[in-house]
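Exercise 3.2. Students should predict the tertiary structure of the chain below and write it as structure tokens, then compare their answer with the key that follows.

Predict this chain's 3D structure.
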Amino acid sequence: MLSNILSIAGKPGLYKLISTNKNLNIIESLSDGKRVPLHAREKVITLSDVSVYTNEGDTPLREVFIAIREKQGEEKISLGAKSTNKEFFSFFEKVLPNYSRESVYASDVKKIVTWYNLLTEHGIDFEEEEEEQEEQEEEGSV
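Answer key:
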């Protein structure tokens, strides 16, 4: 499911890809549900392509979200805009203890927390794609 969730440079929040066409894509804001066109000139990244720097390499964002859910249950993260960088890093260290302290910034952790809360609020399943990939691999090996 994270392959249909987009982050767009210069726009706050996350967007769900609704329709794909040769000339135009339609996206829907997860924050307010408004549908807008997505132009080819905009810089877009799917959350399935995002990873977090760790001391051993990169960890896909999906795995980070799953680790957060294991820690939080189904509850949203209580950190907010008034929380300090130290509080964000303290939380993130519990979730991903081997994150790269030189490469991961407070703004990155804040964005991950915000994204997690937004995705949880909308019931987005982090493990759905992982299951689909395993099914495709099993079908290919038969």
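Discussion points: The beta strands are 5-8, 15-20, 25-29, 35-38, 44-46, 51-54, 57-60. The chain is about 35% helix and 20% strand.
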